[in-house]
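Exercise 3.2. Students should predict the tertiary structure of the chain below and write it as structure tokens, then compare their answer with the key that follows.

Predict this chain's 3D structure.
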Amino acid sequence: MITKESPLEGMNMGTVATVAIRELPGLHTIDLRVAPGTSTQAAVAEALGMDLPEKPGQIRGGAVSGGGEVYALCLAPDWWLIVGFQEAEQKLAPLLLKNHYHFSVVDVSGQRTTIELEGHKVREVLAHLWEQDLREKNFPVVSVSQGLMAKAPVIVCHVAPFRYRVMVRSSFALHLWKALVDAAEEWV
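Answer key:
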């Protein structure tokens, strides 16, 4: 396995009493493309041992044995990111040997890093940089969305109450980190 470099070197600041911002370096991420509603999708779900979310904007997953977390993020009707599942490629490899239509698995772990924000002021911090409505009724836990944050393309995941993950391309990571720290200045 290739060691993934951290663009932020595991930076961490703040407290969850208000807002904590930390990099989660090296999260294993698989880009999964499969035609929805097909026998191939059913075979993928069975191989992974988890159902894929059905609609774009949904997340499935959570804590697993060993203290880690595994998430399946639905980004489009036929596109998922599988995050934190180290064995995903191994489990899906037998399916790649069969002639399945519209099916691919690519390790994209090196493309992005993840910045996690947690605390009671997290929505206020994100509201400085994110144009989408983060109120619970519009962006509940287990929601995911794509867009721009401080002009950087990101994927924002609401993984738990008062806890969000922002996946950002490694080349934009330091820029986004500085913008988040600036937005959180009054609470950290």
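Discussion points: Residues 24 and 131 are 24 Å apart (CA to CA). DSSP finds four helices and eleven strands in the chain.
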